[in-house]
Amino acid sequence: MHIIKQIFGLTCIAVLLSSCHGNKGSAWRSEYTDVPITAPTQLQYGTYSLGMYGSAPDASHSIAVLIPTSGANAKIGKSIRLGIEAATMQFAPDGLQVRFFDTGTGDTGETIERALASNPEIIIGPVFADNARILRDKKPSAIPALSLTSDVSAIGDGVISMAVMPMNVVESAIAEMSANGTKNFIVIAPNNTSGPVMAGAANAIADTYNIGNVGIFYYNERDTDSIKSAALAASMYNARNAANTRAKEILSAIINHESLSRSEKYSLSRQLENLNRFDTLGDLPYDSILFLGDGNDTKSVASFLRYYGVDARAAKFYGTPLWEDSDIASDLTMTGAVYATLPDIPENFRNTYSIATGTYPTRMSTIGYESTLLAIGTLYSHDDIHAHLMNPSGYTGINGLFRLHTDGTNERALRIMRLNGDGTTSIARTEPAAFTVPIYRTGGTYMSAAESEPLDSDGVNPLDYIKIPERFRGKYSAKTYGINHSSSKNNEPIFHTSTILPINDSESITSEDYQPVPLDNISRTYIDSVEITE
């Protein structure tokens, strides 16, 4: 999971995707993309061939690799290096020189200067945003660097991300929401470097798909109290609990103090019995939830949501590749939830890779493998190096379809996976196979972090959810709980609730003989492994 998180290591608050650094040089021009889009070039294991390119196989070329092979991030760097070495052993001609430079310890700027002094034609790396910024400032713009950071503030001027871009992930999830008929959704995200930026992307993308984002809630990672607080606010529990209590008060008052026919008393008693089975009453102002945290935190959030009356039946759950490498697929609470992710690593590649390296490939090692194949193909191509990398038809690699852009971003085709609740997953929607039809509506030139936003709601009036005899409508009243229209967005709610009877805040029940009837309580102490204390 730590390795996957590096792909989403964003540190920008407000970032220009394409214009911040575009004036440094003229090597990366948009006209490279002004060619017809056809089938993607295959980089995938077993189908890649240098024979399709123009250079002689013994031509001399040079690649520099900037990755951390020592220090705190050595595990990540070594995983990437294995992918690079595997690709080199399989496909590198004799004249290719691949030199590794360790960014894990020491002066990174000095390490990058040594790498540039080796006169590379293409650079693979760096992995992290800070190092990518240093490289971008030091290298000539014309030298391409296939970086593994997804931080859009660190790319451009020939530093090109090979990692999964957050905008792609968020749009894939929201596009699936749109296909499933979502009207409004909320975001629940970790309060770290990437969460607010991805939530901001969700705001922008939701407008494109005409879906309302009606609330954004943050929590501190691995903090049970913080997660519980976010779930409490997102569930509208206090308002819906108050509405439930008020509805039971009204029903019990009518049953005990009014003259009723047998059928009326039976109907009201059944309603009261049903209400006593739950803590909450009323519809939510959203029908989907986008979780932007990892699998472990998402499981905790979902457990608290279930405790507060929100589960996958009340709102459909959506997630990101951060759910991979967790046991979230075994959680019954998450049954039916879907998430956007890269395609599965091909089994034949996994087997061959494990034989060659003694370990199974990680996502980072496969991106290193793809970067190496792309670099080799580019160096031995008869095309202009920049035009070749910017091929608008893209490439198909171990991680599926992708293409690069002159601003340093990329597009990767993602699939949608469904959690089956028994430890398995199934494909809900396959990934696109080509760019002949645009995959994403939003590329965008601006992405900003989003602040937390309270739930935009019409509230819950108890009398909208119980049926009482017509002759008592003027006698029993209820307020609407949880009204909030402070959001700056002008989204239409899914459910429109109206108060049937006049609201009287000063006097709940107008009957002088009314005495409240004790209401049954629901006792639930544990949810999964999290103890609930109120």
Gist of the model:
With 534 residues, this protein is α/β, with parallel strands linked by helices.
Features:
31% helix; alpha/beta; disordered N terminus; single chain; disordered C terminus; 534 residues
Structural summary, described in words:
The chain has 534 residues and is an alpha/beta fold. Helices cover 31% and strands 16% of the residues. It has helices at 2-7, 74-91, 108-117, 129-138, 166-179, 195-208, 224-235, 237-257, 262-275, 295-307, 347-357, 363-379, 385-389; strands spanning 14-16, 41-42, 61-67, 96-102, 122-124, 145-147, 159-161, 184-190, 212-219, 288-291, 316-319, 338-341, 395-397, 400-404, 410-412, 415-419, 425-429, 446-448, 526-527, 530-531. Strands 9-8-10-11-12-16-17 form a 7-stranded mixed beta sheet, with helices on both faces. A 5-stranded parallel beta sheet has the order 4-3-5-6-7, with helices on both faces. β14 (400-404) and β15 form a beta hairpin. Mean pLDDT is 85; it is low at 1-25, 46-54, 490-517 and 521-534.
Distance between the termini: 32 Å
Question: How many DSSP H or I helices?
Answer: 13
The proportion of residues in beta strands is 15-25%
Output mean pLDDT.
85
- Helical fraction equals 25-40%
Sheet of most strands: 7 strands, mixed
Describe the SSE topology:
Elements: H1 2-7, E1 14-16, E2 41-42, E3 61-67, H2 74-91, E4 96-102, H3 108-117, E5 122-124, H4 129-138, E6 145-147, E7 159-161, H5 166-179, E8 184-190, H6 195-208, E9 212-219, H7 224-235, H8 237-257, H9 262-275, E10 288-291, H10 295-307, E11 316-319, E12 338-341, H11 347-357, H12 363-379, H13 385-389, E13 395-397, E14 400-404, E15 410-412, E16 415-419, E17 425-429, E18 446-448, E19 526-527, E20 530-531
Helix pairs in contact: 2-12, 3-4, 5-6, 7-10, 8-9
